[in-house]
Amino acid sequence: MKRSSYCGDVREGNIGQDIIVCGWVHSRRDHGGVIFVDLRDREGLLQIVFEPENKEIFKIAEGLRSEYVISVKGLLRKRPKGTLNHNMPTGSVELVATQLEVLNTCPGLPFEISDYTETSEELRLKYRYLDLRRPNFQKNFIMRHKVSNEVRNFLNDEGFLEIETPCLTKSTPEGARDFLVPSRLHHESFFALPQSPQLFKQILMVSGFDKYYQIARCFRDEDLRADRQLEFTQIDLEMSFVEENDVMGVIERMLSRVFKNVLNIEIKTPFERMTYSEAMLRYGSDKPDTRFAMEIRDFSTELKDCGFGVFSSVISKGGIVRGLCIPKGISFSRSEIDELTKFVGEYGAKGLAWMKITESGAESNIVKYFKDEEIKTIISKLGANPDDLVVFLADEEKIVAKGLGALRLKMGKDLSLIDKSKFNFLWVVDFPLMEWDKEEQKWQALHHPFTSPQDTASLNKENAGTVKAKAYDVILNGVELGGGSIRIHRSDIQKKIFDILNISDKSAKEKFGFLLDALAYGAPPHGGFALGFDRMCALMAGEDSIREVIAFPKTQKAFDPLSNSPAPVSEKQLKELGVRVVIKQAKA
User: Fold this and answer.
1) Using one digit for the tens of pLDDT, what is the confidence trace for 24-41?
2) All domains of the chain, ordered by start, with CATH?
3) What CA–CA distance (Å, rounded) separates 486 from 471?
4) Per-residue pLDDT reduced to its tens digit, 350-405
5) What is the dihedral of CA 292, 298, 299, 304, to 10 degrees?
6) Cβ(323)–Cβ(390) under 8 Å?
7) Contacts 24+ apart (CB under 8 A), 319-322
């Protein structure tokens, strides 16, 4: 029998037709001599009815068990009155079986094929082929396919060319550890897997291809978490003769089309824009979640002469004081506030000051150190109401922003303030070009060293921290979907940046020589963008982890339980590569 329809595609318009469906037995029920089977394929479920009058196939149906693979032919009919299932798209019809073939059997399952399984992730990934049968997962990967299809169609319509770049390339410093691949033909030399196609896509612009894109596989040897994997996918693009608005416009149009055609959701464009400094002040993050209010306010000017020594001392030493209003937080007990103090301590904060707002003003053990006008200013600036809890951090700016930004997100989730039905897009712009590394005592590029500064004429080591970059990140619901920049296309400006970063001519030649040589041969002005494809799909599917939209991910310990990798290799393979494994001795 050949399949004539997917189970999930059958509707009332097919009533009266002979249909052949194939799939897996999702569930089997014996109701008074009539056997019902929910048959599942990638498109959904269809109820199959096995009637006792057809003795031959009824006997076979009695032996069906979960996840048996079967093919069924039958006549589609409307379900009897009172038996309709409105929770299923096919819930108004059923297939009365006239032929049945068991294509394969299945032993007892390590876990139930259900969207509500509470199985450990380790076990799920070991039996990933079963995990992926779950209806919700099937929907995720059908959606992922639709997203990639829409992206390709859009970029093709916009005149972009899809060009592949190498997966075996040179190790270059890009922020994370490279995965190294030893060369059999060149002993003691290594390829690296690309962290991104950054250098090659710039070279394509020098080559005159004008508009490039690629749905690219990227690799980073870094610690894993919910939105990170060792290997991931990004939508990578580059354009010549453009400025920031041109690149941002392409991304807005692409995302708008994807969300409309895949989720039927209208995305408002142009996206809101926010400077980096404003995002760090109001939200304590360069990827703010704007689905809820609870904004941070700065009180460094108003409280610099206050009687509370902790605040005034920090401000006098160049630090800052900022506050956050937690709605209905007056119900927090002292122990719960202590837990919040411990929480911000994880971000370097030395303490958390607080006030409970009442009808008569503010209450706490620090209120006595403030003038009435200062209390009124705090309440007014934070928009605090009776029953709210106001908290403060006083420290250097980076610590205060991180601590309050993390606390804001925690309270937003804990107090159910976030509208999860929203998709809030936002551009963060005007990033600093560089930041000072205290440990290394030198400047570091905030994005990468090929990002063009907004001001090139006056840029030097003394003012490097004040110069802004021609960089832009797109944020969705507090997640950085991707980022990009206008690149440096002139060799003299690139050398100036390298000098400020303490990268010598020799070192630059060793690390980036092939790109620098290309830039010297008539490179056009160009810029681009890289968007996290896995992150976007996870957000669109309503998942908390990108592992739920990657077919075969690694665990948080960077291990694949399905293939038991990474794994040792033979001595013969190592010898061919000129590689020797040194086993570390455990400390006594």
Assistant:
1) 999 999 987 899 999 999
2) 7-104 (2.40.50.140), 122-265+475-487+524-588 (3.30.930.10), 292-418 (3.30.1360.30)
3) 7
4) 999 999 999 988 999 999 999 999 999 999 999 999 999 999 999 999 999 999 99
5) 160
6) yes
7) 319/394, 319/395, 319/396, 319/397, 319/400, 320/394, 320/395, 320/396, 320/397, 320/400, 321/392, 321/393, 321/394, 321/400, 322/281, 322/284, 322/296, 322/297, 322/298, 322/392, 322/393, 322/400, 322/401, 322/404
